[in-house]
Design goal:
Length: 423
């Protein structure tokens, strides 16, 4: 079952279909933070607006995810190898740290979420009080197993868990009535979030996944299958999950609605949903967190995965999460420009990603473009999202940061070739 996945060279034997990628990405999406994020968004605007914002955000996310999945299939390289070819041997270290911290931090956050929800549910069902650190330690250790085994184990878990998780989300709807539907559609928030900020959060919450999607796309049989598997998951499953989560939270009057499953008669199902929802998402987070370290150090992926899991479990046990809506927007602001650079550079300079070509130490101009893209996102993020809010472009800061980076990258790579020379 163990699979090393050839992290430091092009993957030469892709064997998975678009359905494998669809299920793995959908499994990643089905997680407790997404349930809560979907619920928080539903409480921050009219549901009628949510009905079109969620699909629009899913389609835009899917196009970006499909593009980077295709990039992985075309090059056969992990996201870590791609950013190393993009920024140079030393410049790539900066991106390595960003990729590793984003994936590992999200792994710890999800583990913490799982532990908190399980703690509340176990008390509600059995009046059993379990210390949060112990739930984080046991849960994190179990989830690390599929990350250690690699892509085959991640895919196998998704094939089993994703249909069960979708069923678990749909079953409570059988107890809802027409009056509940009317309650959902009649909801009006006290203070509505701007549409652009909501859209930025929907896209930005997946931007880490967009950046690391070559890790999975390289394992798919063809670039076309990689593109469509990623696009369909984000365009169909992602908005469906957001709307299901948001509508259930409005009916039940609880943002963290999973803790109310015991009151609906689904106590055991609720526990299984929390565990498997976190597991199918977190195994890929830990897998992607260790690939930059493999490329950087050349050490064994298994040993690095175990070490990263220990760090992530410590983060979860300590408790490090707050401001989910803001975090989702900032993921997009920081990582969106990186995704744009990966795509534009491969379009304009495909030979850079041939491992037979010499690897420079730095491509400082592209690091500068990344920084300017992030600045553009900060300038266009409203103050309620902890940005400066001094500019308005598309009204969605994630898209602003991405599009500004595309323009700047084209200027450097196409019309300013002398400034893109390696050092």
């Amino acid at each position: 079952m163990y699979h090393d996945d050839a992290a430091r060279q092009p993957y030469k034997n892709p064997q998975y279909s678009w359905l494998w990628l669809f299920l793995v990405i959908t499994g990643i999406a089905i997680c407790v933070p997404l349930f809560i994020y979907g619920s928080e968004v539903a409480h921050s605007l009219r549901f009628a607006d949510y009905l079109w914002l969620a699909p629009l955000g899913g389609i835009l996310t899917g196009l970006l995810m499909g593009a980077t999945a295709r990039l992985g299939a075309v090059t056969g390289l992990t996201s870590s190898m791609i950013v190393q070819r993009l920024f140079g041997a030393r410049g790539g270290v900066i991106a390595f740290l960003g990729l590793m911290l984003a994936s590992l931090g999200w792994w710890g956050i999800q583990t913490e979420f799982m532990a908190k929800v399980l703690q509340a549910m176990l008390w509600e069902m059995y009046q059993v009080k379990v210390a949060l650190p112990w739930l984080a330690i046991v849960g994190g250790a179990c989830m690390a197993t599929t990350s250690i085994l690699g892509a085959r184990a991640i895919g196998a878990l998704s094939y089993v868990a994703v249909p069960l998780l979708l069923l678990a989300l749909l079953l409570p709807w059988a107890q809802f009535s027409g009056a509940d539907l009317a309650k959902i559609m009649a909801f009006v928030p006290t203070t509505a979030q701007p549409w652009g900020l909501v859209l930025a959060g929907i896209i930005g919450g997946w931007m880490g996944g967009v950046v690391v999607m070559p890790d999975l796309g390289r394992l798919v049989r063809s670039p076309q299958q990689a593109f469509w598997g990623a696009l369909l998951s984000c365009a169909v499953a992602y908005p469906l999950l957001l709307l299901l989560s948001g509508s259930m939270s409005l009916v039940l009057g609880e943002v963290n609605f999973i803790v109310l499953y015991p009151l609906l008669g689904f106590g055991v199902l609720g526990v299984l949903t929390v565990v498997f929802a976190t597991w199918t998402s977190n195994d890929n987070n830990l897998y992607s967190a260790t690939l930059p370290l493999v490329v950087w150090t050349g050490w064994s992926r298994v040993k690095l995965t175990v070490a990263a899991a220990v760090v992530g479990i410590a983060v979860a046990a300590w408790g490090a999460f707050s401001h989910l809506l803001t975090l989702m927007v900032w993921f997009g602001v920081v990582l969106g420009p990186l995704a744009a650079l990966m795509l534009v550079a491969h379009w304009q300079r495909p030979h850079w990603f041939d491992l037979a070509m010499p690897l420079p130490r730095w491509r400082a101009s592209l690091l500068g473009v990344w920084g300017l893209g992030v600045v553009a996102g900060v300038l266009t993020t409203p103050k309620e999202g902890f940005g400066l809010g001094v500019l308005t472009l598309t009204t969605a800061p994630t898209l602003d940061a991405f599009l500004v980076t595309v323009v700047l990258a084209l200027l450097v790579l196409r019309w300013g070739a002398s400034h893109a020379r390696a050092i």
